[in-house]
């Protein structure tokens, strides 16, 4: 595996290798010496043409814990919004000797274009492209679910997960559906019809318009941010109506199974898709997802650039 552009780049064993490697790396991070020398002398470039403080810092921390050199390349707006500009940027990165480029771009397919090109030879990691995919987020979500709900096996066989809210604009939802299905979980998408993408019936997931019907049946509830910045039209009457039917509040929290966990990829719209008291409840693993993101991104860099999983006990 040379690039990570989409969950469809992974087979089940690839995904489990990354999750297992992240488990080992998390143990290193919990120890006194938090750095490994694995990627010393390698250069990782964070190329973010779209804002995301959380993901960029997570990848930066991951690379530094593996002793890599990190270059943060801010390329907002029009500088890499066109194919020719992306080519020029890639050639610059090649000249810098980039071993891997972590790219976030508002255009779906930009990471693929970079990887398919002859412009650079390093690995390309998709950190979110348009409304297409966000594979590292899905991997950290699966890692979190396995940690809390895994039944001793390497996968998520038989677990039930609800993904709730703005599926239409969510690259996180698409990547999660693909990965959770690959790992044996059963996914239900819960959203108003206006916030489901065309062709969603071809996704490996059930669809429901009734959160109250689904919430008591699942092991994990993943709330999605309502991406109002991507909405040019009226997708629901108002915030109050949306919260009433699709928000996770204390009443719905009480309906959940005792072991079930609450997730959110962040940033949250508190009071819209999730109530503040629910986000801060003992069931919530939202803060832990952020911490797990560093371990997963270390694992992705480790597997792509070191060429092998970290063996248990090798730390």
TrEMBL record:
Statement: the UniProt record of this protein carries the keyword Secreted: no
Segments forming domain Aspartate/ornithine carbamoyltransferase carbamoyl-P binding: 2-146
Residues in Aspartate/ornithine carbamoyltransferase Asp/Orn-binding domain copies: 158-303
EC nos: 2.1.3.2
CC terms in the record's Gene Ontology section: cytosol
Family indicated by similarity: Belongs to the aspartate/ornithine carbamoyltransferase superfamily. ATCase family.
Protein name from the UniProt record: aspartate carbamoyltransferase
Organism: freshwater metagenome
Lineage, uppermost ranks: unclassified sequences, metagenomes, ecological metagenomes
């Amino acid at each position: 595996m040379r690039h990570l552009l989409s969950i469809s780049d992974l087979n089940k064993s690839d995904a489990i290798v990354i999750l297992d490697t992240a488990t080992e790396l998390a143990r290193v991070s919990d120890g006194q010496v938090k750095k490994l020398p694995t990627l010393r002398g390698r250069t990782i470039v964070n190329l973010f043409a779209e804002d995301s403080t959380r993901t960029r810092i997570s990848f930066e921390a991951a690379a530094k814990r593996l002793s890599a050199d990190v270059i943060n390349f801010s390329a907002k707006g029009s500088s890499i919004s066109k194919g020719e500009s992306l080519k020029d940027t890639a050639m610059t990165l090649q000249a810098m000797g980039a071993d891997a480029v972590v790219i976030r771009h508002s255009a779906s397919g930009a990471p693929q274009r970079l990887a398919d090109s002859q412009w650079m030879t390093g690995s390309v990691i998709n950190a979110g492209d348009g409304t297409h995919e966000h594979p590292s987020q899905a991997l950290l979500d699966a890692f979190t679910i396995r940690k809390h709900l895994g039944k001793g096996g390497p996968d998520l066989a038989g677990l039930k997960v609800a993904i709730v809210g703005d599926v239409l604009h969510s690259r996180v939802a698409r990547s999660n559906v693909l990965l959770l299905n690959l790992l044996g979980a059963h996914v239900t998408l819960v959203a108003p019809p206006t916030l489901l993408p065309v062709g969603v019936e071809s996704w490996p997931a059930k669809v429901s318009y009734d959160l109250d019907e689904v919430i008591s049946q699942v092991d994990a509830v993943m709330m999605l941010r309502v991406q109002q910045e991507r909405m040019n039209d009226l997708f629901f009457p108002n915030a109050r109506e949306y919260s009433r039917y699709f928000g996770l509040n204390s009443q719905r929290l009480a309906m959940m199974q005792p072991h079930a966990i609450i997730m959110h990829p962040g940033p949250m719209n508190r009071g819209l898709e999730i109530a503040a008291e629910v986000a801060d409840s003992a069931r919530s693993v939202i803060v832990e997802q952020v911490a797990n993101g560093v371990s997963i991104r270390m694992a992705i860099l480790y597997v792509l650039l070191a060429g092998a999983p970290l063996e248990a006990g090798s730390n």
